[in-house]
Task: structure prediction
Amino acid sequence: GLRCSSSRRTPASWSPLFTIDVKTGVLQAEGKKLGLVGWVQNTESGTVQGQLQGPKNKVRQMQDWLKSTGSPKSQIIKAEFKNEKNVESLDYSAFSIIRS
Result:
């Protein structure tokens, strides 16, 4: 008989780097809630930088959250995203906070 095999490729994930003034713990929780992976880290200048990876629509949701909501008591002055690109596979298995 005929055999039909469907090779299901995982859709490419989206991977932007970001810098923002927001608390790392709240950012990590929001990223996990959306099913994203990556990392966040406080910088010496008082901002937070990191990298998100996951389905493009979920990354876009997180970017919108970073630009408009952020953590309680945080005032979003600027959210900057760069090096946005498609990735074939995720570089991270979780969403972690890197301690300086």
Notes: Strands lie at 13-14, 17-20, 37-42, 48-53, 80-82, 86-87, 95-98. The two ends are 61 Å apart (CA to CA). Confidence is low (pLDDT under 50) at residues 1-11. The domain at 13-98 is CATH 3.30.70.100 (Alpha-Beta Plaits).
